[in-house]
Write a structure and sequence with these properties.
The protein is of the alpha/beta class and 131 residues long. The chain has helices spanning 15-26, 47-52, 85-95, and strands at 7-12, 29-34, 37-41, 58-63, 76-78, 98-99, 111-114, 120-123. A hairpin with a 5-residue loop joins β7 and β8 (120-123).
Length: 131
């Protein structure tokens, strides 16, 4: 028996706002909406595709009444594919992300940021080809 990692659920106050932010960050699209939920991804999952192979998980933003109170126990890491890490951080700041300090110290190869609702994520080294 096997399971597949098909989606990551994120509790939030405003699913539409966070879905729009993460669609811009990851070049994803909204693939499903229902009351209080928005799912985004790079593909529309089908049972056949999921059974055949491991695919990238979708992100599901679920509206909840409570706010975030502590550092996330799980977070996303993103890697720029066509710009420097610094350029990607600047782009994400313009989309509404903020830099944050979770005790990582200085001089790291990654940058810790928060999405518009305060969920931490990291921007790792660039994967862009070197000129």
């Amino acid at each position: 028996m096997t399971s597949r990692f098909t989606e990551l659920a994120v509790d939030c106050h405003d699913p539409e706002r966070l879905a729009a932010f993460w669609c811009e960050v990851l070049d994803f699209e909204v693939i499903d909406r229902s009351e209080g939920k928005v799912e985004i991804g790079s593909w529309v999952p089908t049972v056949e595709d999921v059974r055949a192979r491991q695919m990238s998980p979708t992100l599901l933003f679920v509206q909840v009444p409570e706010g975030k109170t502590v550092k996330n126990r799980i977070h996303l890491d993103v890697s720029p594919i066509d710009a420097s890490t610094e350029d990607e951080v600047a782009r994400l700041l313009s989309l509404g992300a903020t830099r944050t300090d979770v005790g990582q110290g200085s001089g790291r190869s990654w940058v810790v940021m928060e999405d518009p609702e305060g969920n931490e994520f990291c921007v790792l080294r660039t994967l862009a080809p070197r000129n």
